[in-house]
Amino acid sequence: MVDDNKRAVRGFFEAVSDRRLEDLPRFMAHDVVDHNKIIHGEADEPGAAFEGLRQQLAAFDPLTVRVDELIGEGDRVVARVTQRGVHGGTHPRMPEPTGRSFEVEAIWIFTMAGGRITEIRAVSDRLGFFLQLGWDWPQG
């Protein structure tokens, strides 16, 4: 089970990096809850992660996620990753595109059921992300 869960998480990141949104249902439950708040105001409700990822890919092209380490136990998989991208597109909750690139490390924690991701939590170097993109730090 743990190895299958780790394969699903790796497949998820490969689909994101390859911009294969149509493949995400293979790795994510239809009612997946994404608790990751990259930009203020993202929906924290079942299934909203699909639209959130679509918006992220629209804003960042390219966007790649390299899996540096995977740790699995029971129904959880933890991924240490390096995320790289260029802010060239629009997003409803981001500043105007800067054309600048970024590279940050992140830790993603996935809860799994039936071989699919049911919950996502993540922490990343947001200060580094904002500084590299030239964004102002949020005030509230």
Automatic annotation (TrEMBL):
It comes from the Bacteria. Pfam families: SnoaL (PF07366). This is Ester cyclase. PANTHER family: ESTER CYCLASE, POLYKETIDE CYCLASE SNOAL-LIKE DOMAIN.
